[in-house]
Amino acid sequence: MDLFQLEMKVNGEAVSVPVNPGLRLLDVLRDVLHLSGTKEGCGEGECGACSVIIDGELVDSCLVLAPQAHNREIITIEGISADGELDTLQSAFLEAGAVQCGYCTPGMILAAKVLLSKNPKPGRQDIARGIAGNLCRCTGYAKIIKAVELAAAGLQQKEGEAGV
After folding, report:
1. For a disulfide at 48, which of 33, 61, 95, 107, Cβ 3.0-4.6 Å?
2. pLDDT tens digit string along 116-161?
3. What is the DSSP string of 39-81?
4. Which residues does 105 contact at the CB level (< 8 Å), separation at least 6?
5. What is the C-alpha separation between 72 and 36, in angstroms, rounded?
6. Burial, 17: exposed, middle or buried (Cβ in 10 Å; 0-12, 13-18, 19+)?
7. Whole-model pTM?
């Protein structure tokens, strides 16, 4: 089988790798680029463990063939922190106790990131809808919703301090 030269931007870095065109983006991220924060759960787009952000939208990477990611911008959980500092959402998840086994956490955080980029002041129902495609079996959703509320408040406070 001929390899496909996949070119994309992953977490701000240009990437060019030869891949089997039948590989899923999930496999490329984990097995080729060694970004293990993206998890395989169901492999059917039902659980959200493999969620990534593609061009600003939340996507289940298990449903994306590698060539579909060509010339796209991909953000994984590894790409949301900056300069070794946790992202506001990551800190809020820790503060709210919204992390147990951690399997759903990357997808939940990325779902919340997309939500907050579109709606910086979400209500509880907005948050519940924003994370609806991501399943959690450990913490339940109350602590996750609380974490997103904390993150939204923290982002609003940072904007206020910056005079935005």
Report:
1. 107
2. 999 999 999 999 999 998 999 887 799 999 999 999 998 777 666 6
3. --SSSSSSS-TTEEEETTEEEEGGG-BGGGGTT-EEE-GGGS-
4. 77, 93, 98, 99
5. 20
6. middle
7. 0.92
29, 52 Cβ separation under 8 angstroms: yes
Separation CA 148–CA 121 (nearest Å): 10
Q: Which amino acid is at 157?
A: Q
Coil/strand/helix, residue 139? coil
Which positions ≥6 away from 85 have C-beta within 8 Å?
none
For the chain, list the domains and their CATH numbers. Answer: 4-79 (3.10.20.30), 88-162 (1.10.150.120)
CA torsion 121-123-129-135 (nearest 10°) is: 100
Q: 10 Å Cβ neighbour count for 86?
A: 13
Q: What angle do CA 38, 134, 30 make, to 5 degrees?
A: 10
Per-residue pLDDT reduced to its tens digit, 81-122: 988 899 999 999 999 999 988 899 999 999 999 999 999 999
The encoded tokens of residue 7 equal 């070119």
